[in-house]
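Researcher: Here's the sequence for the chain we discussed earlier.
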Amino acid sequence: MDTRKCYDILTLLPGMGGSMALGRRKGKQGSLWVAGKDLPRSAGHPFYTALERVLVAGDFDRFVEDLCAEHYAERQGRPSIPPGRYFRMLFVGYFEGMTSQRGIAWRCQDSLSIRDFLGLGPTERSPDHSSMTVIRQRLPFEIFEAVFRFVLECAQEQGLLKGKTVAVDATFLEANAAMKSIVRRDTGESWGEYIKRLAEEEGVENPSDDDARRLDRKRKKTVSNEEWESKTDPDSRIAKMKDGRTRLAYKAEHAVDLDTDLVLAASIYRADHSDYDSAAVTLDDANEHLAAVDEDLAIEEAVLDKGYHKAETLVECEQRGIRTYIPERKASGRRKWKDKPAASEPAFRANRRRIRGPRNAGLQRRRSEFVERTFAHSCESGGGRRSHLRGVYDVGKRWLVHLAARNLGVILRSVTGVGTPRALQAQHGDAPLLRAVIDALAQAHSWTTAIFASLLPIPTRPGSALSPQC
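Model: Thanks. This is the structure I predict for it:
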């Protein structure tokens, strides 16, 4: 039927056509009284509803309130923001892909479903970003570590915690400081002042900024942490990021359970802290977290990349009863053991025997898959590649809760099948329809190819069995 004829028929039906006045937007005029039933309410996001069930089942609010009680006044002072609400806001930061406190506070105030998850009433305001800063400064590091262990206990109740085989790896997090803020450790000069001094030493009298930049372009530029430091964030260190840029950064090291994909330890170090020295500390943190959940749990095997291979690291793991799977780096000659402790050579030989065994290849594949996945979730989709805090202490607090939220996603994935709100949206939104359209197009393409192949002549080479004979 013609579109014009269809419209004419609809105009004849009562209530389906005819004249209609143009609706115009009017200026906002606040009401003096608003009934509670007229306030907007959210039906609740299915993901955050499931997450709330997990937290309520473990009595999370009572747990953190008992932990934080000694850091608040007993009687005097106005009531603070509930600690459970504060940590929920940090969880939201991971699931929504933002680590900025301003962004988290805005998102919590804007979304009705997240406000329901935080337990805010219709007329209550979500906590401001400055309030989040005050709470973080008030609570010690041990509180954040206890919240991380609480999530591991939830995983233990779901039967997800194994802790026998653990992989360790590290990545860099960009610090909240610019390279322009670095100064000399010995003289306190900034980069511009340092270049001008070099220009004067080259014989340039009263060098201008252009002269300094011209000299800086010609010379070979190298900066080291022994000579330079950041004025705004002294704990940050100069490092080369994964994309090749040189930035001030921190090092985040994870210990991941290869059986369940849970992060057992998330430690923050200065970027110049060597892998040899941090590996044993991270494994100790993971063992402490496991022992706090269940005394019978302990790490038995550690899988690391060749950057961690060192005789001292192998000995430390051997003393802790941990079997190592660390590939060796290329050596120019034979190793000498005369000037090293007696336990170095047996630990080295035992590690070599294990990495040459049939089990090592599978463990290394799982290490690269599981650990890199935690970095992708926490740094890329979780928005944590750049830190918005300063200092190892504060960055470590934030990172522990960030990875605790990631472990909550693993728990929810085992219970509901999805680990993030966006994954749930893709599962129940337009994604199935889009997949059906793509499958239909692929099927149509295969049919079209088959039809054209049957209609067009088959090209043959001269002299072949299918070529026409003269």
